[in-house]
Amino acid sequence: MTSAEKVSLIHGAGGEMMQSLIGSVFAGIRNNNAGGIGLEALDDGAAIPFGDKYIVLTTDNHVIKPVFFPGGDIGRLSISGTVNDLAMMGAKPIALTNGVVIPEGFPIDDLKTIVRSVDEALAEVGAAIVTGDTKVLPKEALDSIIINTSGIGITDRPIRDSGLNPGNKIIVTGTIGDHGISLIAHREGFKFGSELKSDCAPIWKTIEAALKVGGITAMKDPTRGGVANVLNEMAKKSHVSIHVQEDLLPVRRDVRAAADMLGIDPLEVANEGKAVIGVEAGMADVVLAAIRKTKYGKDAVIIGEAREGSGVIMHTKIGGQRFIEPPLGDPVPRVC
Amino acid sequence: MTSAEKVSLIHGAGGEMMQSLIGSVFAGIRNNNAGGIGLEALDDGAAIPFGDKYIVLTTDNHVIKPVFFPGGDIGRLSISGTVNDLAMMGAKPIALTNGVVIPEGFPIDDLKTIVRSVDEALAEVGAAIVTGDTKVLPKEALDSIIINTSGIGITDRPIRDSGLNPGNKIIVTGTIGDHGISLIAHREGFKFGSELKSDCAPIWKTIEAALKVGGITAMKDPTRGGVANVLNEMAKKSHVSIHVQEDLLPVRRDVRAAADMLGIDPLEVANEGKAVIGVEAGMADVVLAAIRKTKYGKDAVIIGEAREGSGVIMHTKIGGQRFIEPPLGDPVPRVC
Ligand SMILES: Nc1ncnc2c1ncn2[C@@H]1O[C@H](COP(=O)(O)OP(=O)(O)OP(=O)(O)O)[C@@H](O)[C@H]1O
Ligand SMILES: Nc1ncnc2c1ncn2[C@@H]1O[C@H](COP(=O)(O)OP(=O)(O)OP(=O)(O)O)[C@@H](O)[C@H]1O
Ligand SMILES: [Mg+2]
Ligand SMILES: [Mg+2]
Ligand SMILES: [Mg+2]
Ligand SMILES: [Mg+2]
Ligand SMILES: [Mg+2]
Ligand SMILES: [Mg+2]
C-alpha cells in the first residue's frame, strides 16, 4: 500500500481487501508468536503449547447495527463469535472477556438485556465472562455500542484451517446465508416471512460432537465474506482445490428469495452459527450423523470434497462448472 | 439504577460512578467464573487454575485521543495497559490480542506507526500479539481508532488487589500523574516544559524484580481514577486503612505546576506505567531496592502503610490529616 492510502470500509469487510490490509500492516508485527500457532497462521485463533495441552486465544470486535436484530443481539453475537472461533481451533471454550465501548446516552436497560443474552449464550456452552472493561465515548464520537470479546479455550490438538487433504469431504453444519441476508432484509425493512432470522449461535457442542468421532482435518467458521471466502481460504492454505455441488448447498427458501431480490449471493454473506469442516472421507458419514444429532447441526450436509489442484469449483445444477471466487468484501456492512 | 437511566461519560471514567455501573450491570453476569479468580473479584484480571499454575486473562479497550501524544501513542498504550494488568496479577505476559476498530479514512501510514510502537512495547517484555480482528466504521459512526488488547499471562501464585494486611508498606513505582496531566496539557495546547510527557510503559520487568524478592501482598495499577482511586479500592477490598505521607508522594515539579494551573489533582488522574504495591514491612526495603534497579522503577518510593481500620488517610506536610476520597471519575476524559 502506498503512503497516501487511507482505510476504507471494504478493508473491514472480511474478504480479499481485508486480507490485503492485514497482510500489509498487522501481519508486519514481528513479535507474533508465543510458541505453537501464532499470528503468522492467520487462523481463527492462536494456539500456545502449555504442558501437554494448548491454550487457544482469539478475539473479535462486534460493531453490528442494529444492536437488536431478528434471531439475536450484540450480546449473543459476541459470545457466539468468540466461542465459535475457539471451537474452530478444536478448543473447548473456558473463559471470555467483555470489553465494551458505549456511546453516551445508551439506555442502561438495553445494557441489561445484552447482559442477559450474554449469560444465555455462555450457559449453552459452559463458558464464563471472567473480566471486562468499560469505556464511554461522547455521542458525537461513536454511534453505537462496540463489544470486544476475547477468549481462551483448551485443546489437546489444535485444528487448523489449512489441514485439508485431497479426498477429504467438506461438511457445512447448516444452512447458508441466514445471518447476513436476514440482517440486511431487516435493515431495509423487508418482510420475507417469519423464518428469516440470524443463525447466531455458540456451536461448541456441535463441534465437540464432531471432534469426538474423529477424522476432522480442518475447520473454519464462515463469518464475514461467507462460505465463498472461507472455502477459498481453506483451499489456498491447504494447497488443494475444493469441489462443491450446487444442488447440495443448503439455503433456506426465504433466504434464497430475499437474496435474489436484494441481488446478494448467500455464499458471500456472514453466517454466525455455522462451520465448514474437512473430514477424512471414510469418517464423513459418521461425523455428519454426530453433528446432525446436535441442536445447531440438524441441517448439516456434505457439500463437496477437496481434490488436488487449486481454487474452489462449483459443479452447477445444470452440469456446468464455475469458480466460486473469494469476495473483495462482505456485501452487507456492519454485520458482526 | 432505574429503568430510564442512560449511560453518561462519567460511567466510563474509572471512579465510583463506573464501579456503580459495573456493579449494577456487568457484575450481574452469572456465568462469571472459570475456577480461581473470576469477574466477582473485580481485580485487574482473572486467574484460572491450569495444572499447577494459573492462566491470567485480562482486557482493555483503548479510546485515547489524540492517538499520538507526548511519550507514546495508542499502540504503546494498548500493550502497556494489558501487560501491566497481567503484571498486577503477578503474571508473566505471554500472548496478547489486537482488536482494532478503525474509522474510514484513517491513514494507513498511521496504522503502520502504531504497529511499530506495538512491536517495541512487546519486545520490552518478550510478549507477542498472536491474533487480532479488524473492523472499519463509517467516519460518521466513529471519530478515532479504538484498540482492544486482551492478553494472557502465567503465574504460580496470583497477586490480588485485596491482599493488604495491617503493617504492610505501600510502594509506588514512580512519579504520580504524568500520563493524565501531560495528556490534558497537550490537548489544551499548554507548554509546561519538555519533561511533561506520559509515563506509558510496560512495567513487567519492574514487577518481576519485585516478585523475585518476595513479600508482595497486593498490587494494582493506578490507571483511570489515579492513585486516589486505587488506594481506596485496595483499602476497601483488603479491609484495612491506608496511611500516606504527603511529603513522600513523588510528583514531578512540572506535573505539579501544570496540575495546579489546570485545577486537577495529580492523585486522581491516570498513570500508565506505574504500580501501587503492598509489601510485608520486613521486606519493603529490599523490594524497593530491587524495583529501583529497573528501567521503570528508578523513582519508586514507600509512600505509607496499611493499618487496621478503613479509608485512605493523608498525613499532610503541615502535620494535619485528611481523607483521600475516591474520585467519582477521572477528571481527564479519553485518557486511555
Ligand atoms: N488488527 C489485527 N491485528 C492482528 N491480526 C489480525 C488483525 N485483524 C485480523 N487479524 C488476523 O487475521 C486473521 C483473519 O481475521 P478475521 O477477523 O477475518 O478472522 P475471524 O475472526 O475468524 O473472522 P470474523 O472476524 O469475520 O469472525 C486472523 O488470524 C486474525 O487473527
Ligand atoms: N464491561 C464489563 N464487563 C465485565 N466486567 C467489567 C466490565 N468493565 C469492567 N469490568 C471489571 O471491573 C473491574 C474494573 O475494571 P477496570 O477497567 O477499571 O480495571 P483496569 O483495567 O484494571 O483499569 P483501566 O481500565 O483503567 O486500565 C475489573 O475487574 C474488570 O474486569
Ligand atoms: Mg473465524
Ligand atoms: Mg471471528
Ligand atoms: Mg480496564
Ligand atoms: Mg488495572
Ligand atoms: Mg487496565
Ligand atoms: Mg475476527
From TrEMBL, chains A, B:
Family assignment from sequence similarity: Belongs to the HypE family.
Transmembrane segment boundaries: none
CDD domains linked to this entry: HypE
Descriptive protein name: Hydrogenase expression/formation protein (Maturation factor)
Segments forming domain PurM-like C-terminal: 166-313
Biological process annotations from GO: protein maturation
Domain PurM-like N-terminal stretches: 43-154
Coiled-coil regions listed in the entry: none
